[in-house]
Amino acid sequence: MPQSLVKPSSRISVVAGRAHRRLGTLGMVCVTIIAVIVLTTLLAPLIAPYGPYEGSVADRHLAPGVNHLLGTDQSGRDVLSRVIWGARSSLLGPLIVIVVTAVLATAIALTAAWYGGRVDSFLGRVLDVLFAFPNILLAILAIAIFGPSLLTASLALAIGYVPYSARVIRSVALRERNLPYIAAARMQGIYGFVITVRHILPNVWPQILTGMTINFGYAMIELAALSFLGLGVQPPNADWGLMVSSGQSSLLQGYPEQSVAAGLAIVVTVAAFGYIGERLGGRRAAGRVR
Amino acid sequence: MAQGQTDEFSTPEIRPEHAVEFWGLSRTFVMGRGRTVQALDDINYAIGHGQCLAVVGESGSGKTTLARIVVGLERPDAGTVVLNGHEVRFGASRKNRRTRSRLVQMVFQDPQGSFNRRLPAGAAVDEVLRAHFPEMGRRARRSQMLRLFADVGLEEQHADALPAALSGGQKQRVAIARALAAEPTIMVLDEAVSALDVSVQAQVLQLLKRLRHERGLTYVFITHDLSVVREVADAVLVMRYGRVVEAGPVSQVLDSPEHPYTRLLIDSAPRPGWKPQRNLRSRLLGAET
Amino acid sequence: MLTIDNLELSITDPDTGRVSEILRGNSLTLAAGEALGLVGESGSGKSMTLQCVLGIEPPGSSVGGRIELEGRDLRALRGEELRRTRAEDLALIAQNPHSVLNPVLPVGKYLMEGMSEARSMPKARARLRSSELLRSVGIEESERVLRSYPHQLSGGMLQRVVIAGAISAQPKLLLADEPTTALDVTTQAEVAAILDEKRREAEMSMIFVSHDLDLAAAVCDRLAVMRYGELVEIGTPEEIRDAPQHEYTRELMNARPKLHPEEA
Ligand SMILES: Nc1ncnc2c1ncn2[C@@H]1O[C@H](COP(=O)(O)OP(=O)(O)OP(=O)(O)O)[C@@H](O)[C@H]1O
Ligand SMILES: Nc1ncnc2c1ncn2[C@@H]1O[C@H](COP(=O)(O)OP(=O)(O)OP(=O)(O)O)[C@@H](O)[C@H]1O
Ligand SMILES: [Mg+2]
Ligand SMILES: [Mg+2]
């Protein structure tokens, strides 16, 4: 078969070529940035010059120099190291959000699209109610009940994101469900669940993926905001949002390094995800009209 | 021989010698704001095992709707469909649908929409094989699929192609192969050979005729091509505005048509030296009741 | 008017890297107001030829050769010029109407969009004109059809909607890909007559893909026969019918099913 003619090495270049066509040069730059950030996160123990909590008050507010490339914070901890370590919780939170959102939204959307009728309108009603709550409010409510932590904040945000995503996925799934080939498969007596997973899911997958990419950026900003308010990650953990907030007083004293470094990390990551999401399917795909 | 159109006033009786029967089928579509379209109005016919019933008629006259009701994809407002002595109900349970799909398969008029665009053509056939013959292994399914492809004049390379990478006629043939994969006893074909050139069409018609002799397959064959009707069908139903205007054995209807619309149809079929004409239907105005 | 010179098309499968040769160096010319019938085996590349003329071939294609419309190299056009040429000079009746109609819009929207873009006419006029157009292709309940979504219409109705859309653009070159396969023979005759009339009135050229040799012969000035991506024969309908040169053409003539058994 002609398949054997294809060398494995050329497979990678084929994939890269396709990704390039889809995302453009800037998109490939964004992919690279994200890859570097993820790698840094995984290799933090090897890369970071210091531990996240290492440092003494004697070394506070050192200017950037050879020992501390980005200087130190108010407790004398190395800012660069904390940015590198902080990437963990800063990326983990949004990751939890988008995975939980995608799973819940897809399940709801496919159920609504498959059964239609009363099931569809009931689920639609539930989503409407959820939709009426602002995300942050929902998160603050959950935190008031379960106490502040990354997990609580992420789960609460995820619930808040479900209505947007579920609606978009439902509309695409519904269009797919009404295509004649689904009727043909149903006529064969194939289980509805099997048809949904084998036929409908792969066809709405691009929307799910786009939504996840775009939501990642939003989740990162909103989680940072929650950490900033003291409702997410708790000190002394390293976290970008938390660093921006605890760098605030230093900022006023004329030591902007910590806030700027963490803030920049957030902006670059959010921008990279946002651009890829944009290229994949545009803002509408994530269901956001803001 | 065809059973012919039954007397309008006779009570429906389910007879085992009939493969496909339908009685008093009517269907009206509601379009919103109180507007309705009557797609079918009291359609009756019955054909025996191993027969081929052709359905011809004006575009929009309800042929596809009739086909969808016969296979249980559409709900009739009134009337009954009986296949091999079993009454067909719309929206029956999954088990019933599975049983029915062993009995009857349909080839859809829109070959593109009847495929998942992310699934290679061969996989679409494979899915049907998997659903109906769970005891079959992967290899056996693959070779059966390739055999079906060869039967309709397609090659192995087409099995690995996505629907979008197939020509119109190739998609139609995959659809036929998929329907045959379930080894039904009744096939409903909605314009299933319309996109085939005459030589491939001849091959497919030959295949259908062969299966009919070998397995006693019964066909409901919707087409616009009267020469195809002549070639494969035993009986023909001529439809217009959701009604049957004429029905009977092919030779009778095509050689001595009684209804003016049937005559018009026969006259407007292309043949050597034929020229297209406008306002053909206005010729019917006086003749119509 | 249209010159196709040594048109080649090969498509590379993005996943396997396999290259398939679809068209193998075909040439033909078309005069203004001339109709060329394209017949041939299923999968021989008829639809692909039309797609190359329009420049809408599938991703992974590489096209060789030249296509000229009134002296302009169609494949070199870019941006605004390309858009205008496509909108004003060319029209396609696609083989599958579903591929051009948006499933979530009423078909009336499709017709009026095409019209007001090409001619920027007011909405009410566009609506009236669409309704007229549909009636001219034999759709009696044109008002209902305009308001219907594609899934609510029969195959032949959809095909006529697309035909009406193509005619309304008053193109210089109409590319008709099996435009009447879903139509009953009476409607087919009427639609063929309309295409014929438009062609004579407006000096419109046409490439008419069909499987029906008699139909193609009646509508076209010349016939071209394709097989395996190659143009194997081209000539007037009489030449093709009475003295087919290529073996495949003879096969086509013989395989033709007969409506009347006594027909030779
Ligand atoms: N889901 C639907 N909703 C509303 N109207 C419908 C629907 N399906 C079909 N119709 C209407 O019913 C009539 C019959 O349609 P059908 O598809 O059965 O025609 P057909 O005989 O198959 O025509 P063709 O030869 O053109 O395919 C048409 O007027 C069509 O608009
Ligand atoms: N995207 C694609 N990738 C690879 N091959 C393709 C692609 N699209 C079409 N083909 C192949 O190109 C060939 C020509 O296709 P085309 O649609 O032009 O045929 P056609 O002459 O119009 O046939 P038909 O009469 O059946 O519509 C076919 O063999 C088809 O399998
Ligand atoms: Mg139909
Ligand atoms: Mg084609």
TrEMBL record, chain A:
Pfam families: BPD_transp_1 (PF00528), OppC_N (PF12911)
One cellular component term from this protein's GO annotations in UniProt: plasma membrane
Biological process per Gene Ontology, one example term: transmembrane transport
PROSITE patterns: ABC_TM1
Transmembrane regions: 26-48, 91-115, 136-161, 181-201, 213-233, 259-276
Cellular localisation: Cell membrane
InterPro entries noted in UniProt: BP-dependent_transpt_permease, MetI-like, MetI-like_sf, OppC_N
UniProt entry keywords in alphabetical sequence: Cell membrane, Membrane, Transmembrane, Transmembrane helix, Transport
Bilayer topology: Multi-pass membrane protein
ABC transmembrane type-1 domain location: 87-277
Nucleus in keyword set: no
Family recorded in the similarity comment: Belongs to the binding-protein-dependent transport system permease family.
PANTHER family associated with the record: D,D-DIPEPTIDE TRANSPORT SYSTEM PERMEASE PROTEIN DDPC-RELATED, OLIGOPEPTIDE TRANSPORT SYSTEM PERMEASE PROTEIN APPC
Protein name: ABC transporter permease
Top-level taxonomy: Bacteria, Bacillati, Actinomycetota, Actinomycetes, Micrococcales
UniProtKB/TrEMBL annotation, chain B:
Signal peptide: none
Tagged with keyword Transmembrane helix: no
Swiss-Prot/TrEMBL GO biological process terms: peptide transport; transmembrane transport
SUPFAM superfamilies given in the database record: P-loop containing nucleoside triphosphate hydrolases
GO molecular function, a single term: ATP binding
Location of the ABC transporter domain: 20-266
A Pfam family it matches: oligo_HPY
Keyword set, alphabetical order: ATP-binding, Nucleotide-binding, Transport
Keyword Cell membrane: no
Family: Belongs to the ABC transporter superfamily.
Protein name: ABC transporter ATP-binding protein
Originating organism: Nesterenkonia natronophila
TrEMBL record, chain C:
UniProt KW keywords: ATP-binding, Cell inner membrane, Cell membrane, Membrane, Nucleotide-binding, Translocase, Transport
Membrane topology: Peripheral membrane protein
SMART domains: AAA
Superkingdom classification of source: Bacteria
Domain ABC transporter intervals: 2-253
Similarity-based family: Belongs to the ABC transporter superfamily.
PANTHER family found in the cross-reference section: ATPASE AAA-TYPE CORE DOMAIN-CONTAINING PROTEIN, OLIGOPEPTIDE TRANSPORT ATP-BINDING PROTEIN APPD
Protein name: ABC transporter ATP-binding protein
Native source organism of the sequence: Nesterenkonia natronophila
